[in-house]
Amino acid sequence: MSDDLLIAAGVGALCWLLLVPVFLLMTRFWRHSPVDAPQDAPPALVNLVVTGGKLSKSAFAATVLHLASRGKLGLTLRDGEFWCEAPSQVAQDGLADFERDVLVHVGRRLAGVDAVPLAALADKQADEDDWWKPFKDAVRALGRDTGLVKPRLSDWQIGVLMLLIFPIGLLLAMAEGSRDAYIVYGLVILPVDFAVGGTMLEMAGKGLLTSAGRSLAARWSPPPAGAVSETRPEPLAYAIAAGAPTPFLGPITEKSTASRPESAWSSYGGTWRNVPLPPADPDPLLTPHFLLLAAGFLVAAGIWTGVAANPLAGLCVAAPSVLAAVAAAMLYERHFATRPTAELAGQVIARWHSAHDGPYTTRIAVDDGDRAHVVAVKPGDRADLHIGDQVRLRIDPRSMRLRETVERSTPAPAAALSPEPTDD
To answer: At what angle do helices 233-241 and 43-50 cross, to 10 degrees?
Structure first.
């Protein structure tokens, strides 16, 4: 056993143990928590405590309705669904940070149109990182500041603690120097690290309610009877924040387990439509290059191992090889029959991440007025393409990858809901 490596592992473990209380102190967990829940908590905080700190999509819709009840937004009921309109002017005094973020988001969606469906505003799956995550973080921060949710370790703090376990465990395995030590490191330390870290991240994401948070949650659980028939903004806001079903919100279902949306809202052409997206991205392995390589590998493996000498075994090898070669030929024919470059004009209506196509780890959906097209883009290009942008793209129609952004314009948001300039 190497004493130097053992000492290094001990020093690392000591640093890890010292880092835990430092991170806990950074959360300021000792701050006083009010015993009684606030009487004037906004609907977003009601949703935060009712969901145990998870915060559902209803929180955003409830905030829009609450702002409308205070005259910050216009609201109309059309064909059984709420539509938002921009008021002539908005005084942003007395608004919480997350409420200002909501007004900015509504203003962007109102660009070029006179009204927007509430369902389109609350469609967080269309681009979760763009506006839902800042809204969620701001509401959770307010929940901690008002004493409804206990402060927890942040994602980056938990990530640092998880990463430090890897070198400590590896140093211990190297100090032992035996094969069994490496087996224990691979089969015990790493899985436990991921399991504990994942549990900590889940707890940090949800948060734990204080006594005041539990009191507020109990006040709104179950939701008030008769709330589902309300059409007045304020009582309806609190009702849906508490989890009451209502027929007036349209299709704003929570995010599914899939990473890509099935549909997205578009205002291209001046009319709001919920546009279905094409089927899921094809498997990246089903490419002509891969199929041709697979056919060649099967033939070479059959010859090298001598399996091809046996008629029956040779048939088992030849059949999939021929099928793979035929499929590759068909894909190659389609590939070369398609023009290598085409232009696509329309509106960006959704963005999401994908693990396909190597560096092309992001997808955007573009509505051309007739249907939606899914285009693979690099993360750097994604940062320049936002929901609602009018674009003209040069793409490769064979792989549906972005070659160049020819033109991009961002419609000006509704003037009354534009973010107020700040003094530097």
So the answer is: 20
